[in-house]
From TrEMBL, chain A:
Domain of life per record: Bacteria
Molecular function terms from GO: catalytic activity; FAD binding
Pfam families on file: FAD_binding_4
InterPro entries, sorted: FAD-bd_PCMH, FAD-bd_PCMH-like_sf, FAD-bd_PCMH_sub2, FAD-linked_Oxase-like_C, Oxid_FAD_bind_N
Domain FAD-binding PCMH-type, chain residue ranges per copy: 1-178
Name listed for the protein in its UniProt record: FAD-linked oxidase
Species of origin: Pseudonocardia sulfidoxydans NBRC 16205
Record-linked PROSITE patterns: FAD_PCMH
Keywords on record: FAD, Flavoprotein
TrEMBL record, chain B:
Organism: Pseudonocardia sulfidoxydans NBRC 16205
Domain FAD-binding PCMH-type, residue spans: 38-216
Keyword Plastid recorded: no
Disordered: region residues: 463-484
Entry cofactors: FAD
Protein name: FAD-binding protein
Amino acid sequence: MTRATPTTVRPADLGALRDAVLDSAGTLGVTGAGTAAAWGGTLAPVDTVIDVGGLTGIITHNPGDMTVSVHAGTPLRELQSALADHGQQVSFDAARVDVGATVGGLVATADGGPAALVHGTLRDLVIGMTIVLADGTVARTGGHVIKNVTGYDLAKLMHGSYGTLGVVAEVVLRLHPVPKATATLAVDCTLDDAAAHAGRIFDRPLDPAAVEWYSTGSASGTLLVRMEGTVDALPRRVERLHSILGAAADSGAWDAHAAAVRGAPGQAVLRIGARPSRLAALVGSLPCATAAVGLGTGVATVALPADAVADAHAAVHAAGGTSVLRDRPDGFTGPAWGPPPSAIALLRSVKRTLDPDGRLGPGRLAPWLQEDPR
Amino acid sequence: MALDDAARAALARAVGTENVIDDPVGRRAYECDGLTGFRVVPDLVVLPRDAAAVAAAVRACAAHHVPFVARGAGTGLSGGALPVADGIVVSLARLKAVLDVDPVDRRATVRPGVTNLEITAAAAPHGLYYAPDPSSQQVCTIGGNVAENSGGAHCLKYGFTSNHVLAMEVVLPDGTVVTLGGDSAEQSGPDLRGVFLGSEGTLGIATSITVRLLRVPETVRTLLADFPSVEAASDVVSDIVAAGIVPAAVEMMDTLAIEAAEEAVHAGYTVGVPAALVVELDGPVEECDVQFAQVKEICDRHGCTRLHIAGSVDERAAIWRGRKAAFAAVGRISPDYFVQDGVVPRTRLAETLTRIRAMGEEAGLRVANVFHAGDGNLHPLVLYSAAAGETDRAEALSSGIAELCVEMGGALSGEHGIGTDKACSMPTMFGEVDLATMDRVRRAFDPDGICNPGKVLPTPRLCGERPGRYRPHPLEESGLIERL
């Protein structure tokens, strides 16, 4: 069957979003800023694209409670800039925030950055959500308080769903104070040496905020260790770290790190998760053009030749890890996901229950969510 | 319909006859959990000796349509482990192995019957610990913590169970065994692990749990401060937060709670003061020095009448003993009590406490307050005497307080769970559509409805045909959200 160009709708509020889902027939794709449009499985041709880019802005910000609710199409960097006036932040720093990624898109793709070492990902920072299901159901989960075990946490289902289970409409986030002082030490070294350094850091009570190694080509690279604290205390803590690493301060290097995570156009970028102690050897075994490796988080992002992707999925899986392809060269048709998780039947059951007609995000989790697995 | 012979035989085969309790006296020991007001004697109790036997027991339940309720130490306060009529209890008490402690990747893998504190004990030789610390941590099991997404005094800074569980081996309600989560936070696809955590035993049974371990902080500073009013103490909490300090814990107790705790454990609290705060900071020495000085200054600024700084490990332990004993200690000043667990936005703490006091006076009952002030999680203890016929009044007041928390923009439960206790109050916080959506997710895990049925979501059987009346959420009334 051939399809005409999909109809794009751009709702301006929650009601219009619900109506857009109800008034359309057939399959639906969801887009925000489009910064991860090529990530994961390729979206199959759809009848309607819902652009949530019109759902923007802060709904409520309670500085005293350190919570904020926003429309899902709000670019996170805009939110961060508004929160900074109050000395607050969402403690989340995925590389694509800098290029305009929306809060909803960051949730749907389960993205994360170096700050995950201490603060986790949006999975850990989202405290409430409003979602629209494929049948037009508008459901709320969680609330506006940090601590809350009332009912099932449906927001978790949206995290990493790539638009296949529902449309994220509103998100409530917990906030943290912006650190009064920040410092980064940088050491030029190989990945193996960086892993050894990281081991020494984690063996001591230094409380680093982020520990990452990145490389933009050669065998060597740079270890970055970020420290956060108070103006009065941080210098002495940095001295302690310096005595271990013998490194120089270089806070600007985080931009280079984020660029390595994003990869260059035309590259196949693979996101990898594994036990931290296995990650350096795993990444070292892959033919990486560039790499960014979270030595405490166990999360790495590497750029590979397109023909190495399938083997890389297999190598990660063999090491007990998980992998997903992010950007890739035009025309690439290799696998986006590694082998399915053991709970694949459960995942399909959840999909059937929330989206029985298979309307949302066809192809994004392919081949896992085959609607008809004959 | 009671359990038939075929189902009994299948369950005995699954776990071994010697691991089945079917005599009435033995079964009665499982009739309730920490919420003792609700009691149901199960038809059968099975105590599997290993994870394979748990899966076999669940498969037998699925084959014979027998409802089952998983149970750890039975310390839950919301009736989540209350047995169901004509169903069985699957006790995880014998799955007590610590399978692995990995000091390099800083994680431990344990069976569900291991207690919260046993994980920290196993990690301690490596300078590591398990962070979530419910007050019952000496006895409550990690399996129960997973079910309830348990918190504790230190979760303000360190997060809840959900933030600390990396992976679980789970027996789904049809008896299949899956792994949810994995070796890192980077997992492919929707976060099913996150949905399972805090699902109160309604989506399956975890038989192996891998948790993150944290490095023991370099230093810990703890102070106990008295204040002339609850309002003054609340202002201190707000100012600490406004100063950009994230304390490890901030706990508040009012006059009645202090009186009860002192009578029980003599921890050095000042009897008679309107409010006491416990503030704890931890982390690198340099940071604690700076921030602890700020906290002391904030306390002074708000009229602190006594400031006691723990000068030793023993003194810190005494302060915490007083705080953690407060619940049970209330039994010393009242024959009976109900515990609530609502959460309010921190900025509305003082207002909420004033309202609770007025509600208590109106009902002619005393309410003691001991709570996690840093995250707004209240634990009002409604004191009453069943012998004096005050039970119904106390129950109404207790529910009214939980619903007040929702009205304040908060939540019904911060850490104890909904279970049986608050299922009928769910419509005060969520609309019909929200609850129906949660029920759809439940059906995706448990299409036959045999896994801890009747908990969390309101049912006609538990709550009557109209399970509580719907009231617009305050955010809805103020136009901030709309119920479409």
